[in-house]
Write a structure and sequence with these properties.
Order of helices and strands: EEEEHEHEHEHEEEEHEHEHEH
CATH class: Alpha Beta
Oligomer: single chain
Number of strands: 14
CATH superfamily: Aldolase class I
Helix content: 25-40%
Strand content: 15-25%
Number of helices: 8
CATH topology: TIM Barrel
Low-confidence stretches: none
Structural class: alpha/beta
Length: about 260
């Protein structure tokens, strides 16, 4: 059944909510919805106290390592870590307390070509059971599906979100994380087609992010995916300055599953 999963998004060492499509390397045009007065460690401890597992910490750019590791150590085994994960540092984050490492840009070359050998190397290093592949994507025009985006979601790759690719990649990792980049951070609604697609085609657990702006949307995701897609909430959540979704209500949503 669908679960609410928590998140901690880090930018310049602070917990923030940012419109995903506004991220860029030079920081120009960045749209920030919220900057928390609390540390990443504070959020991790809160999630641990409330028994919320399977959440993720995402490092949006440089300068976040210390904050990320403080969160991982505050909730050992309870959080996944993504953002700048490579072969050289993956084990370091697992040793720091991460349950899984999340990879995206590492799997592509500078031109955005998918390199399956890198996925295989990461799976060998950490084990498929501790690997999450982030397939955050942008919609193609019309009903053309979706293409995976890299480099802070600014660059489109050559990897389409197809049933065949989900099966191939899913055989080498434990979960998928999928941000719908076009709606992420805007609190204007989810990409329903994408949720249906993931529910029908993902061979492994998958967490959807992007546009969840009311508690009822969690129920909608459950309906559309037949309970096969989990969801995370950012800017709309009261923990992150939002007014539309109560964190306590999300806990209750999970608790009703028994």
């Amino acid at each position: 059944m669908t679960r609410f999963r928590p998140c901690i998004d880090l930018h310049e060492g602070r917990v923030k909510q940012i419109v995903g499509s506004s991220l860029s390397g030079d920081g120009k045009g960045l749209k920030t919805n919220f900057v928390s007065e609390h540390s990443a460690e504070w959020f991790a401890r809160r999630y641990a106290q409330d028994g919320l597992g399977g959440g993720h910490v995402i490092q949006l750019g440089a300068g976040n390592q210390q904050a990320a590791k403080s969160a991982l150590s505050a909730y050992p085994g309870g959080l996944q870590i993504g953002g700048g994960i490579r072969l050289e540092n993956a084990l370091e984050y697992l040793d720091a307390g991460a349950s899984h490492v999340i990879v995206t840009s590492f799997l592509f070359d500078h031109e955005g070509r998918f390199l399956s050998e890198r996925l295989q190397a990461m799976a060998r290093l950490v084990g498929p059971e501790r690997l999450v592949v982030d397939l955050s994507c942008r919609a193609l025009e019309g009903d053309g599906g979706w293409v995976v985006a890299m480099d802070r979601w600014q660059k489109r790759t050559d990897l389409l979100l197809s049933p065949e690719n989900l099966r191939e990649i899913g055989g080498q990792c434990a979960e998928f994380l999928v941000h719908a980049v076009d709606v992420e951070g805007k609190c204007e609604g989810i990409d329903e087609r994408l949720v249906v697609f993931l529910g029908q085609n993902s061979p492994i657990p998958v967490t959807y992010a992007g546009g969840v702006h009311r508690l009822e949307v969690l129920h909608r995701i459950e309906h559309l995916s037949k309970g096969r897609v989990d969801a995370t909430i950012g800017s709309a959540l009261d923990l992150f300055g939002g007014t539309a979704v109560s964190y306590q209500d999300c806990l209750a949503f999970n608790a009703r599953k028994g």
